[in-house]
Amino acid sequence: MIQRIQTVYLLLSTIVSGGLIFIFNLWEVAEKKIFIVDLFSQESILYKMIPTAFFVSSILAFVTIFLFKNRQLQFVLGRVNILINLFLLGLLIYLSLTVSGETAVSEKGIGMFLPILAILLLVFANKAIKKDEDLVKSVDRLR
C-alpha cells in the first residue's frame, strides 16, 4: 500500500515543509534575506514557532506515510497536519504584516506560500485516503 497516490502527496508535502524551507526565503528586509533558520535566533517566541511548526508538519506528514494499514488514523493525522499548516499560514501572515523595518522597502519571499502548497497536497492525500477507505468499505459490504 505504500505505492498509493496518497504516499506521493504526503512525500511531496514532507519535502515542501521540511526541505524547501531552506531554499526559499520568507521575506527580505533591507537587502537581507530572512530564512527559516534565521528565525531561531530571534528573541520572540512567535518567530521560533514558525520553524518548529514547519518541522512538526514535515515529520507528521512523513509518519503518516507509514500508517497505511490504519487509514482512519492516516486521515485524522492528515487533517491535524492541515490545521498545523493553517496555523502556520496565519502566523506568517501576522508576522509579515508586523515585521520590524516594514517602513523600509521589504519583499515577501516565496517561502510565505509554502504552507498553502502543503495544505493543497495534504487535501489531495486525504481525498485519496478517503477514496481507498470507501473502496474497502464497499468490498466489505459485498461479502
UniProtKB/TrEMBL annotation:
<keyword id="KW-0472">Membrane</keyword>
<dbReference type="InterPro" id="IPR025635">
    <property type="entry name" value="DUF4293"/>
</dbReference>
<feature type="transmembrane region" description="Helical">
    <location>
        <begin position="109"/>
        <end position="129"/>
    </location>
</feature>
<protein>
    <recommendedName>
        <fullName>Transcription termination factor Rho</fullName>
    </recommendedName>
</protein>
<dbReference type="Pfam" id="PF14126">
    <property type="entry name" value="DUF4293"/>
</dbReference>
<feature type="transmembrane region" description="Helical">
    <location>
        <begin position="7"/>
        <end position="27"/>
    </location>
</feature>
<keyword id="KW-1133">Transmembrane helix</keyword>
<keyword id="KW-0812">Transmembrane</keyword>
<feature type="transmembrane region" description="Helical">
    <location>
        <begin position="80"/>
        <end position="97"/>
    </location>
</feature>
<feature type="transmembrane region" description="Helical">
    <location>
        <begin position="47"/>
        <end position="68"/>
    </location>
</feature>
